[in-house]
Amino acid sequence: MTTLARATDTLTRDALTVLQPGFAGTTAPDWLLRRIGEGLASVALFGRNVTSPEQVAALTAQLRAEREDLLVAIDEEGGDVTRLEVRTGSSFPGNHALGAVDDVGLTRAVAAELGRRLAASGVNFNWAPSADVNSNPDNPVIGVRAFGADTDLVARHTAAYITGMQSAGVATCAKHFPGHGDTGIDSHHAMPRIDVDADVLAERDLVPFRAAVAAGSRAVMSAHILVPALDPDRPATLSRRILTDLLRGELGYDGLVVTDGIEMKAIAGTYGIERGTVLAVAAGADAICVGGGLHDEGTVRRLSDALVEAVRAGELPEERLADAAERVRSLSRWAAANRPADGAADAADGDVGLRAARRALRVTGDSAPLTEPPYVAALTPVANIAVGDETPWGVAAELCRLLPGTETGSFNGADAGREALAAAGARRIVAVVRDEHRHPWMAAALDVLLAARPDTVVVEMGVPRAAPRGAVHLATHGAARVCGRAAAEALAGV
Question: Which of 58, 129, 283, 315 could make a disulfide contact with 161, Cβ separation 3.0–4.6 Å?
Fold first, then answer.
């Protein structure tokens, strides 16, 4: 009887160990602290948990009072996807801007400084970088999160990012394996499918992940995508062929494999989160990311119970669950051993993000500075879930600072161009767009603005696929706050 109780306790602890859940609030709820005591080894932070670096540091200290070797994970890509600076916009340009500069030393420095700030806040595991090759220009969820559409460029900057961030003692997580760049569907909403031959995947999508493995990335995140050339039946997150045979076998990867958010519709809407969790671990995943949408104790209970029951029913080998849990603990040990020493902040390079954003800026046309406060017309698309709609973006705030009296408005839809013209009055217009090439209404609005006001300035803050137009065209290669600042400085001539 005692042996059975001990075995049950070990099984339950292993089930909790492989979960990486989120929670609500800016302090740790009682249920989370209790679960840490019962075996939970990882906690995930999202924008809803963040108000300031000091608050995050206090929160992570509260969590580690329960378990010193706790992994605290976050989705902090910099650029458009930021959690530490979710209320203000990021101090760092994202991957696409770094790829546009194409200086691996700069990428390494940006990642090191971002990692330093994460470590100072008590975060030791970052679900970044995106190692996806953005080969589909209409991709609705990757875009500026990728270093670019060139395989070799993505590979070298993925490696540089990993080296830089892990030098700060923060584990990286190359994502979204085996590559989410050639999709036209967001896996938050449905199951994407990539229909290309295996040799295309090997020569294009897998190359950056090979670079990530060679660079020593401590984790790799799976994608909720169906890739028939690799597995015609199961999406990558649930595929043994992809996670075990390909990633571990062919690519020789021996670190942690974590899933993308298990509650995303590609998995939850097809398999359900309990079944999806069991199948993911059986396929070779070691950790289950959950909490972007579902972030309550009931979700943790449901998933841990599903794993325990699957082992008892013979659907999940107990050895596979134990191996997964041990990989989580191994990453915890690495993070503890690589925790920055006191005084590491002396190596801070606080301006590296702004320097990178300035270098990424591309200006086409007459770049004479604005002489009067303009009207900033933001042609605003619906934000994808990964980016979120709570993070400010654009150039208006920075132009207001440099040119007091600047006014702004947000527009979308079929009448966006006419509405922006009416709102601007006699002021010169600065039209701010994001992925014009993906939004016909946005292109039509620019047509209206430029026909009526040829002196309109256009600032593209997404992937600059559309031809430059306007009296001046600025491509920032991302919508981070520092990208907006770099554009505003150029427009104001400072």
Answer: 129
